[in-house]
Design goal:
The protein is mainly alpha-helical and about 120 residues long. It has seven helices and no strands. It has a domain of about 55 residues: Hypothetical Protein Yqey, Chain: A, domain1. Helix 3 runs antiparallel to helix 4 and helix 6 runs antiparallel to helix 7.
């Protein structure tokens, strides 16, 4: 597998010189979904199932904009969201084919509800 940026640019094209020349944009320094999935497979083969799952969720998040991703992180902080708001976030993630992320949000909502950590 060839490692590439989220933009598709090859790793050897992402250099300090390119950055200084203004030839790179944000997607050139973001990791690609395929690279994250490859890393997840490697982690799982080496017995690191939890790391593999974390990398799979990260791969799902590559379809989100930076602002949507930050909003999701903010919503998951204790006492920041209601149960219904977290359920809506899970539905939005699922609509973006981010099913593992959506499941994590549902589990967090249930745990927050049990522990009194909802707004």
């Amino acid at each position: 597998m060839t490692i590439s940026a989220h933009s598709g640019r090859a790793l050897d094209e992402i250099t300090v010189q390119a950055a200084r020349a203004g030839q790179l944009d944000l997607d050139d320094i973001r990791i690609s979904r395929d690279t994250l999935l490859s890393q997840a497979e490697t982690a799982e083969r080496s017995g690191s199932a939890q790391l593999g799952m974390n990398l799979r969720r990260a791969a799902e998040m590559t379809v989100l904009s930076a602002s949507d991703m930050l909003a999701a992180y903010e919503a998951l902080r204790p006492n920041r969201s209601t149960f219904d708001e977290l359920q809506e976030l899970a539905a939005r993630l699922a609509a973006h084919e981010a099913h593992a992320c959506a499941q994590l949000v549902r589990e967090a909502a249930a745990a927050y509800q049990r522990r009194g950590l909802l707004r």
